[in-house]
Amino acid sequence: MKSGLKHILQSFAQRGGMSIFFSSLIARILSFITSIVALQLIDNTILGLVIYAFTIISFVIPISGLGLHQSLIRYGALLDSKSQKNSLFLYVLKKGVLWSLILVVIIIVASFVFEPLLLESRNYLIVLSLIIPTSFVLEILKIQLRLFHKNVKFAKVEFTYALVLLVSVFLLSYFYQEKGYIAALISAPILTSLLFLKGLDIEYKQHSKLSIIDRSFWKYGFFASLSNVATQFLTAIDIILIGYFLTNPETVTIYKYITLIPLSLLFLPRVFMTTDFVKITENIYDKNYIRTYIKNYSLLFLIISICIILFSFVFADFILSFFGENFTNHTDSFKTLIIGICGILLFRGLFGNLLSAIGKASTNYWIALSAICLNILLNYFLIPKYGIFGAAITSTVLMWFTGIISMMMFYLYYNKLAK
């Protein structure tokens, strides 16, 4: 692999990366508009309760299907024939939907046990748990397209989902307020899946047993999903603890929207990893290839990070004013989160995926778990004292912490692996 910024951009474009980039960008814009629509059509206090419930669901979604979608992408890339990949997809679809439904039952039971912690959002939580199986189906559909290098079609799925969600939220929230909003969140993934499932060209009655499906197959998916759950929890726990310590649903809404733009910037490393993960896995034992890729990626995202910081610091008030005048009182929290996000752009986005590519999904999990413990500890002191700004400080520290630790652990393992 050649080094240089020009080469990584050319290689990225050749693999359909630009289609994924523009579809992801448009999807983020549509998602932003969707959030604004919900904010305008639903009472802020009620919306805060829905967001609180959805935040809890959001860090369960990565473990939908017990992580089998994670196994599908890595182990599917190791299979040669179309029939084998299709057989693996059918296995993951069947087992994954079953485990997703089991998770729904667990959440329903848990909602009654932990009702005092749910801020009157138990009923919202129960209904929103149905997102788990619908989002799982959509996720494995997108993964199957990536395995066959259909990145352009993958991009169409991303765009279609964002558009369906926007239209659904607007129509249903307009007529049914928060009930319509919840219905849109649940139905959008399955509606999108139905539009593209036929395009997978799978013979549902013809599948074979695969030797690749063994204990390690399930173990990898389980730890990869736990890692994603823990990572999601790192962003969700701030909202949960803000709701718990400040006992004001409106502050939940404010923090949710302040983090919206910084967290949306994470689509940039995701676009690269979505495009290149299969290719990286195929070349993971090529020491020169991986080191050159790291060099090129780091240069590109250093430039991007500098540009993001400069733009966000100059126009922070203008950006937050889109949500409402009261949001401009929290520019310090917004700027702090922007600095934190750059830690993910430079380190976590790259080295977390490289750890997965070498089969060390469990390491990602332990890194995220340690960060959760630090998150709870820091927020315990900072949120009561500094409010929303305290949560922003904690998030920023942990974003850089997890990124740097991921880099150190990757080189520790890879220097041994690549000898």
Give your account of this protein's structure.
With about 425 residues, the protein is mainly alpha-helical. Helix content is about 80%, strand content about 0%. It has 17 helices and no strands. α4 packs parallel to α7. The two termini are about 20 Å apart. About 50% of the residues are buried. The mean pLDDT is about 85.
Topology:
Blueprint: H1 5-14, H2 17-41, H3 44-58, H4 68-76, H5 82-113, H6 122-128, H7 131-147, H8 151-196, H9 215-246, H10 249-258, H11 260-264, H12 267-282, H13 287-314, H14 316-320, H15 331-357, H16 361-386, H17 388-417
Helix pairs in contact: 2-8, 2-12, 3-6, 3-9, 3-10, 4-5, 4-7, 4-9, 5-6, 5-7, 7-8, 9-10, 9-16, 9-17, 12-15, 13-15, 15-16, 15-17, 16-17
Question: Top keywords for this entry?
Answer:
single chain; 419 residues; mainly alpha; 17 helices
Please provide the count of β strands: 0
Largest sheet: none
Give the H and E element order.
HHHHHHHHHHHHHHHHH
What would the average pLDDT be, to the nearest integer? 85
Runs in which pLDDT lies below 50 for 5 or more consecutive residues are: none
Helix proportion of residues, in percent? over 70%
Quick structural summary:
By secondary structure, the protein is mostly helical. It is 81% helix and 0% strand.
